[in-house]
Amino acid sequence: MKPLDLPTILHTLAVLCIGLFLVFFIGRLLTRVLKPRFSPHHLLLAQKSFLYVGIVLVVCTVLIQLQVNLTAVLGAAGIVSVAIGFAAQTSLSNLISGLFLLGERPFEVGDTIIVSGTRGVVLSIDLLSVKLRTVDNLFVRMPNETLIKAEVTTVTRFPIRRMDINIGVAYKEDVKKVIRVLKEIADSNPHCLNEPEPLVLFKDFGASSLDFLLGVWFEKSKFVDLKNGIMQDIKERFDQEGIEIAFPHLTVYAGSETPPFPVSVTQQADELNK
């Protein structure tokens, strides 16, 4: 390799700077053009792929300008790649899993998902991992292999959802009245959808309560408003109707042969004045 003169070095630096500028500029332009046609995670993948390929081409051009023998460089890179491949089997598994995720599309950027007890919004879907932001604003990186093996729940996949509320009332309450009141609560709540209609189900005879299920449909963006509103509506309406919400009761039993024993509570007058 001949010694490099100053004009060659300056020309090489110019090629490097202009090449990188064009790669990033065209990458942004490509993102704007493809944005209406592609989903967010496919758009992100296309943008990163273009950037990686463009940077590699610019680096190869610079090496040619520096009169570097690319054959030797590529040969050494091949040997290094084989060695890295044996040492990075986990990364290869994540890469293959990432391709499956991109093809299957169980979720997209912006969706809320639940994976192994972790709930968060999808920030990006990369070839090796998926980035999440949890509800308490924590950053979570999950390997793609974990997402392929685990059960993934996409909370925001469909435009509407159903919220199931389990309610237990005392055994003395009238079942028909409870069902009627629950239906009226659902019909009067502005965040509950009329179609599909709310579900009121008498589920079971519980250990200490009559168990009911109230299922109401709502738009996925109204979860918090509906949750706060309908729980408050149930409590206030049950109080107005005199319906007792069941809670654990303790019964002291001393045996069939033992007569009931009296219990009295006394309180001194001076204690009342404290």
User: How far apart are the first and last residues' alpha carbons, in Å?
Assistant: 99 Å
What's the domain count?
Answer: 3
Q: Average the pLDDT over all residues and give the rounded result.
A: 81
Assigned CATH architecture of the largest domain? Orthogonal Bundle
The order of strands across the largest sheet is: 4-3-2-1-5
Low-confidence stretches: none
Transmembrane segments: 6-30, 50-68, 74-102
Domain Mechanosensitive ion channel transmembrane helices 2/3: 50-89
InterPro entries: LSM_dom_sf, MS_channel_1st, MS_channel_C, MscS_archaea/bacteria_type, MscS_beta-dom_sf, MscS_channel_2nd, MscS_channel_C_sf, MscS_channel_TM-2
Keywords: Cell membrane, Membrane, Transmembrane, Transmembrane helix
Task: Give the helices and strands, then pairings.
Layout: H1 6-34, H2 40-65, H3 70-87, H4 89-104, E1 112-115, E2 118-125, E3 129-134, E4 139-143, H5 144-149, E5 152-154, E6 160-169, H6 175-188, E7 199-205, E8 210-219, H7 223-241, H8 269-272
Antiparallel strand pairs: 1-2, 1-5, 2-3, 3-4, 6-8, 7-8
Helix pairs in contact: 1-2, 6-7
